[in-house]
Design brief:
- The structure is a single chain.
- By secondary structure, the protein is of the alpha+beta class.
- The longest helix has 37 residues.
- The two termini are 34 Å apart.
Amino acid sequence: MISLMNDDAKSFEELALSFAARQLANRRESSDRYPFGPFDDTVLAKADELGFLGITVPEDLGGIGQGISTLCVVLEGICRTDASLGAVIFTHTLSQDIILRSGSVDLLCSPSSRGRLIACSAYSNPDEHKDPPRAEKGKKGYTLTGSAGYVVLAPIAAYALLPAKIPGQEGYSFFMVDLSQSGVKASEPVFSLGVHACPVADLALDGAEAELAGREGAGAAYFGEAAGVMSAAAAAMSLGIMRGSFDYALAYSNEREQGGCTIVNWSMIKTILADMAVQTRIGDMAVYGACSAIENRLPGWDIVAKSAALHVQDAACRVTTEGVQVLGGYGYMKDYGQEKRFRDAHQMKTLLGMAPLRKVELLDRINGK
């Protein structure tokens, strides 16, 4: 349904589905072994060639200049097969969006596909960081000291966009940090519940040189605006995961024979599949509504987008649980993909901050507090 918004979105949906089928399906199980196996640079390079690492970046800055609906159809199509690459694209796009809102567009320029990646703390809200890095301004610019935990893409990115506090100032600021310098030490990759091939690490900063993105103390404003838009993208990723789970469960049910008939004819299986289908269709409408509200800047568009994300993320956890059940014992085996979708769906609920806190925040917004 999202692809109905414009012709460009439809063509990108077809491109994403084709890419996922050719490049991700056969690698899904081996990629999910990261960090205990190597990271697959090949897939990332091919995604970059197709423009997936610059979907919302203006053409004059090296991107393809599309809107949130195109980003959502790409993420949804990719996440049907493997949400790890979707999380990579999401994190990089979030960093780009914050930078674009800051006006520091020169920070987006970088030559190589891996060099283009910009890590950030995509699974948290900087407002909730109790002890962010400290930023000091000197004659040659800024330096950061302290620690930044759970930085998504840190093991493979060339740069990271990190929130830090300048002593004596309210709020926080965003800084671009070159991860190759001696003042930055990355931990071993952190093992997460899902999307294993979207690497995460903790960073230790000791006088690391950094470039300010935008204005001092304006980080919360940049992140708040970016998070509103990217909530629709987070919803699209969860939609892709549950659609992939439903499609696989339906195909399996039409092939699996037991008791003299295919199990799709069992009333219990039909009931489960029907619920999965309904939840997926509702999720599709929720993401469509969020994209429409954002692109038309309807009143309360950010509340619509965040509501869609919260609803679809919860629904994806339910649908992927049912997807495992349809396969019975096979649903728990890694080579069938359903257990990975279950883990990925729960991992998606942490995007942009903890879901319970976001629900309370959303209620306060609706209640006018």
